[in-house]
Fold:
Amino acid sequence: MKALVITRTGTPVHPNIRLVTDWSGAERFGIAPDKPGPGEALLRTLASALNHLDLWVGRGVPGLDLTYPRVSGSDACAVVDAVGPGVDPAWVGKKVILNAAIPCPRARGPWDAPDTSIVPEYDLLGEHANGTHRERFIAPISNLAAINDSQDPAEAAAFGLTFLTAYSMLIGKAGLRPGQAVLITGIGGGVALAALAIARYLGCPTAVTTRQKWKQERAAALGANLAILDEGQEWFKDVRAWTGRRGVDVAVDSSGKATHLNCIKSLARGGAYVTPGCTSGPDATTDLARIYWHQLRILGSTMSTPAEFAEVVSLYRAGSLRPVVDKTYPAEQGAEAYQRLESAEQFGKIVLTW
Structure:
């Protein structure tokens, strides 16, 4: 079958991307066999979407012993072609999107803490195992959600990982409530745009930052109430002025080092700083006095719960949330798609059609 393959690690990534027509193999959740196992579905890919994770896989993920060539991809819209034993055959023919986080069963020890204090462990399709940038793949039926037949496959492929991440950050972790003020850094990336859409859906006043003026204008058109051009200044002063010196209730920051301190200084008392990554570096300078004095919360977020996945997909099916698609490429132009992702010039998700 056709697959978009990372032939080897390296930076930049896009020169190492090749479309092959004879991809085959046999790893778990890996290279689609003809028959799914118990609790699994065989999926025919209509569209798959790129995430920043695809670049990390292309560069080599620290701490993971990945082998190459391999296929990345943690987002897809697909059709269920077959199901394994124990799966309702009504799934066959359904158009679905994917939660790429595959739970890793963990045996409990006699002195383990309650599950409420233990974050589940996951293997990620597209990172730990070969992913969705191919014509067919297998996934657990519990990681799929049906969408409407009328919904566009490219848009649907762009929805999953970023909206799942943003929903878990804002609702599950930070406990955002309707009407609370939100700050989102680095608008233009998939997670940031998903967070903006969710915040606007909840009626939350929203401020965003960007280093590019044209993205500032696009964000304002999408409903951002304050769009700050980040030129390295202390822009937290703009955020506090916009909120009448109160500050925001939640700051969503995937940049890290370059934006962390401004975010901390933008928060209201009891506010939450929540991060799904640190693209500008992990070694941020913070303000511990402000954190304890204002009783701020610092939250990390990776993926989500199955319940959060079901909730956010329900909002997509109903038309309440929609992703922004930057550009769509046929799979044959996959290297160009990776190059656009590396350029950081996109506004929204980059999608491959199959």
The radius of gyration is 20 Å.
